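Long-time lurker. I teach an intro course on protein structure, and each term I like to show students one example going from raw sequence to a predicted 3D structure in token notation. This year I'd like something fresh instead of my usual example. Would anyone be willing to generate the tokens for the chain below so I can use it in lecture? Attribution to the forum is fine with me.
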Amino acid sequence: MASKTLYDILELSSNASDDSIRAAYERLSAKLDPARPENAGKTEVKFKAEAIKEAFLTLANPATRAQYDKTLAARSQPAVEILEEIEPFWTIPKLTVLVLIVIIVGGYYYKHQREETRLAAEKAIATAKAKEAQEQAKAEEVQARLELAKQQQERIQDEQQRRERDAALRQFSAEQRTSAGSDLARTQRERTEQQQRQREEAQATAAARQQAAREKAELCRLERQRYGRAISC
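-- Reply from a regular --
Happy to contribute to a lecture. Here you go:
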């Protein structure tokens, strides 16, 4: 049974686009995330995740993918056809040495390209995370500014309401003082009028007494003049 190709690991066909490769990697990585309860403590999940990561690093880079596609095509070509295309000069030992050299050089190149692809992928992921964090920070800053503006507006409204209450209280106090002043003035006026009436009554009483005294004195004078003595006095 043939071993799985990198396309098989990512559940893709060999003509899959770059976006499809990235989408498949993200989907399978999320499915095999060790943080998920169903994956906790499973060794095979870790191996599958590593295989998916290696497949993505190889196929995400155009150069390593092209090299891998060539290797995959050569691997799928029948051995008889390969031997027919080889010139008689190439004997089995020479082919073996050549294959070893190709494997070594190809392995070194593949490892180098894979490392570059890994670094590029990690850099892209780090850049995306940094951008996401920056956007999150901007959104939080905007939210904080909106909240601050809302609090300031509420403080302004509270201050305005307090001033209106103070103004209403001062107006009420002034009206009360005015009303109290009016009552006091009316009371003083009534008291003055009463005192004036009392003085007038007293003056009238005194005048009546003086008039009565004069009339009595005149009566006594007339009695003495007529009777020789004052009867009423």
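Some talking points for your students: DSSP finds six helices and no strands in the chain. The radius of gyration is 60 Å.
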